[in-house]
Specification:
About 70% of the residues lie in helices and about 0% in strands. It is mainly α and about 240 residues long. It has 2 domains: about 40 residues, no CATH class; about 200 residues, no CATH class. Helix 3 runs parallel beside helix 8.
């Protein structure tokens, strides 16, 4: 009898495990390009973001640019009813979502070797060229930058901007600055020439001004921690900060 109960329990566990695998496979199938006719709207997979659940939602969307873009859009909607404190948390989370949605984070990582070589060579133009290649063909870049700029506080609103920066990591601030600059450069039609001629002391109002403010906040955070960091060096090479 005992042996039969053990066998039955094992069968139950195997069945449950198999069901979980099947459900996981179905979810992947319906959200992948293998089934475009049945692909679900990524927004339908995401509950309303809150300060309490946003980190879980970021983790679930991390490897899916379209879902990260949908999450970014939902963060924008959620700000309307969030408290000031929760707004800062959601705005900081939007930086990570934007990096994933735009594809910039993946592109930078995949070109890390070339970036390191360019940095070791000490030639800013080489870094600009690598970044230009990295962002070529990023289809979500423009839409990501538009939503991100709408989410983040105006740098001229010092209290709101500082509260947001306090919730963000230097790395996320730096990557978001690159996202905004890259979108502006991509829209200009000449990425390398745009970045090469960009002046952080006189950015245009809007996304350019916001990109510089994010870069400066990242650089300040790096300096406060006792170093500059490779991303800080990249920001300077991209003319987002003044060396």
């Amino acid at each position: 009898m005992m042996r039969n109960r053990v066998q039955n329990r094992l069968i139950e566990l195997v069945s449950i495990f198999g069901l979980l695998i099947l459900l996981g496979s179905c979810r992947q199938f319906f959200t992948s390009s293998l089934a475009p006719w049945a692909k679900r709207d990524p927004a339908l997979l995401i509950p309303e973001p809150t300060a309490a659940n946003i980190q879980d939602l970021l983790a679930l969307s991390a490897n899916n640019p379209d879902q990260s873009l949908a999450l970014l859009d939902k963060i924008n909607d959620a700000l309307a009813t969030a408290s000031a404190a929760d707004q800062a948390v959601l705005q900081a989370a939007a930086l990570s979502a934007a990096s994933n949605a735009s594809g910039v984070a993946t592109s930078v990582l995949s070109n890390a070797g070339a970036l390191l070589d360019a940095m070791e060579g000490g030639q800013p133009d080489d870094i600009i060229a690598v970044v230009s290649d990295a962002i070529a063909g990023l289809s979500n870049l423009e839409s990501t930058a538009v939503i991100l700029a709408d989410i983040l506080p105006d740098p001229n609103d010092t209290d709101a901007f500082n509260a947001f920066v306090a919730q963000a990591s230097p790395e996320d601030l730096a990557m978001a600055a690159i996202v905004l600059l890259a979108a502006e450069a991509q829209a200009s039609g000449g990425v390398e020439s745009f970045i090469d001629g960009f002046d952080p002391s006189s950015p245009d109002p809007g996304p350019q001004e916001l990109a510089v403010a994010l870069a400066e906040a990242a650089a300040a955070a790096y300096a406060a921690s006792g170093g500059t960091g490779q991303l800080a060096d990249i920001l300077a090479s991209l003319n987002l900060t003044t060396p």
